[in-house]
Amino acid sequence: xxxxxxxxxxxxxxxxxxxxxxxxxxxxxxxxxxxxxxxxxxxxxxxxxxxxxxxxxxxxxxxxxxxxxxxxxxxxxxx
Length: 79
Known about the structure:
Elements: H1 2-20, E1 25-28, E2 38-41, H2 46-52
């Protein structure tokens, strides 16, 4: 009985993840310059993607989202 409940919950979580987690490519436009737009995969960190493209943003917490130093504005597609 317990095994059936656990298997059912795991199946439910897998279905929910497939429906709720973003997949595919993401476009990042920095300072409104569409010519210098960056492409990355969904799930990668913003600071990491910017640093990979030689755009460095100060972040006291290292991108953990706790200090508020690296503020960004999501204009479209934020979830």
